[in-house]
Amino acid sequence: MQDDFKVTRGLTLNLGLRYDVDAPRHEAHNQTSNFSLTAIDPEFGIPGAMVFGSQCDNCNTAWADTWWKDISPRIGFAYSPARAGKTVIRGGFSIF
């Protein structure tokens, strides 16, 4: 959601918030893999091994959880220094 605020005749501010949900991607047949620092390497018996989604029964094969807290601010402005001029200075900032 965002809104424009006309502060003066030549200055307009655009303020807003953006909300995104970052849902992890899934592969249809669990043909994915990921490196795990806690999985035991079967050949050497030490931590650190590849984990394969097709061989993991109770794993989250997207390898991540859904992030529900992604709120990012936005601010923009448009400034015209001359009343009848054609010059406009614009700028903006946001966090992605």
Q: What does it look like?
A:
The chain has 96 residues and is mainly β. The protein has 2 domains: 41 residues; 38 residues, no CATH class. The chain has no helices and 6 strands. The strands form 2 sheets. It has a 4-stranded antiparallel sheet with strand order 1-2-5-6, with no helix packed on it. A two-stranded antiparallel ribbon has the order 3-4. The relative contact order is 0.28.
State the helical fraction. under 10%
Write out the strand line-up for the largest beta sheet, numbering strands in chain order.
1-2-5-6
- Count of helices? 0
Radius of gyration: 25 Å
Shape: rod-shaped
Task: Report the biggest beta sheet as strand number plus sense, adding barrel if it closes.
Answer: 4 strands, antiparallel
Whole-number total of structural domains: 2
User: In terms of structural class, how would the helical and strand content be classed?
Assistant: mainly beta
